[in-house]
Amino acid sequence: MRALADRALVQQLTKFALVGGVGFVVDTVAFTLLRLTPLFEHSPLKAGIISTILAIGANWIGNRYWTFGPHRSTRGAKEGLEFVAVSVLGMLVALACLAFSHYVLDLRTVLADNIAKNVVGLVLGSIIRFALYRYWVYHPARRDRVGARVPEPVE
User: Fold this and answer.
1) Maximum pairwise Cα distance, the chain
2) Which end of the chain has fewer CB atoms within 10 angstroms, the N or the C?
């Protein structure tokens, strides 16, 4: 039984990583393109917010319908708000890494900003996001899950 649970966790982590990979590409490309424009040349945090919002949209679709598909909620709006709350927490972790690197360490190149936000920040934020998605947003024991088995009333 334990091996089955371990296998399910590995499959879920793999799907989460693949969906995250798509989000990573969306985020990194958008962030880099924004940072190279005169409008965001000196505003890495604004560029990071915009690029992360785009990635959150891509991740929402992949995680809701694939990674955690069997455990998604029948109340999509509530689940969406929870997903966004967790995603914003992950974004704040990445932006804190970016701000520290850019403004405290004075590493101000586009490459340094990408490493701080999309490598260090991504790893730390992903750990937090996966745990909160798995144990809160998409937790199988929540009563509003698709395919959730509701216990028969006791008479």
Assistant:
1) 69
2) C
